[in-house]
Amino acid sequence: MPQRPTNPAPLLTVTADTLVAVDLAPRTRDRPPGPYRRLFTRPGTRAFTLANLIARLPMGMFSVSAVVMIAGTRGSYALAGAVTATGLAATALVAPWTARLVDRHGQARVAVPATLIAALGNLALVLCVHTDAPAWTLFAAYAATATTPNTGGMSRARWAHLLGGDPDALHTANSFEQAADELCFMLGPVLAAFLCGTFFPEAGTLVAVALLTTGVLAFAAQRSTEPPPRRRTATAPLRAPGIPPLLAVCLAMGAVFGSTEVVTIAFADATGHRTAAGAVLALQAVGSCAAGLLYGRLKFTGRPEHRYPWCIAAMTTLLTLPLLAATVTGSLTLLAATLLIAGMATAPTMITNMTLIQHRTPGDRLNEGMTLAVTALLGGIAGGSAAGGWVVEQVTPTAGYGVPVAAAATALLIALASTPNAAKSPPAQALWPST
């Protein structure tokens, strides 16, 4: 009869003359690190990522804080909405110009003064609201916040600079950044509403200003990972081959987001659960965030152009689920579940879109190209909100869920038209991750 060894790692079972060994020792030492762990082993990546997340969180706070602050003190949601819409329009005009300066002169040199100007604009808005200044001063103050730099774009530009020769790692980095966007825009409004409701109406804006300024200063201080300024080429991102269709898809994607938000609020209000609208919308962001992180762990061997229309097709298909849930059942709980599922196709679509923009934008104007994508998204959100609101008022909140489906279908048609070969069945390796 064999003796039990002194090593406690293997478990030995003796039956007749047969010796069976089952190794229960942990194998984490021999397991290769995952893609996200490998991503952040590069020097300086953790520092600039943490600073950027601090700077990015306020992006989901400013609008909600402004609406609550203005509506709470002036008693007019119409005025609050007009002020925030003015800021959105100003951002659409100023943001690409700011990004162009970032590409030309460097992130730290441009982002810091641009952030300080935006911070002063927000502080001026707080002062004007607090002192009951004339309404036109609110518009002027909030328009000054348009210089806020595209922090997510600057972070993606750093990853592209560090990982330019490793497409798999860049895919993981883009997936992480998209998940970070979803997380910040999910937590930002909740934090803003909590601060404004718990303390005083100006609290959300003041905390957002402090986070933005601190985060950008810390991010700019990480000079070792900053892309060097480059001499500007004659090719503008808008004129680069393949960029206009990608921006058109971003516009349609923004319409999906904007209409879904308005219609969900209206549907929750119609069912007597208006206060639950925020939680329902947060579930969609949760689904997108989780899918983005999972998508980043997959390794694809095919070109992103082949995956792109299939991602949009999946998003279009899944967006029919909220429409069916609202039409057939009228249940807010079931609607929330379908929005969670529908959100799972959002992040892969946006990740692939940003990857293609990085590939097709001239390297010396990468921030400008990605900021144009964000500007298109903002424009689409504004248009989608208006379209969703019109359908809700003229038809029903349930019918409003047809707007995001139509917007997603439009995005799919644009993608198919701009990629003729995408309509054909792509090779298997273009759709599925390699094993």
UniProtKB/TrEMBL annotation:
TM spans (from-to) = 47-71, 77-99, 206-225, 246-268, 274-296, 308-328, 334-357, 369-392, 398-417
Gene3D superfamilies assigned = MFS general substrate transporter like domains (1.20.1250.20)
> Which Pfam families does its entry note?
MFS_1
Q: Which UniProt keywords apply?
A: Membrane, Transmembrane, Transmembrane helix
Name the source's superkingdom.
Bacteria
Q: Does the keyword Transmembrane apply?
A: yes
What name does the UniProt record give this protein? MFS transporter
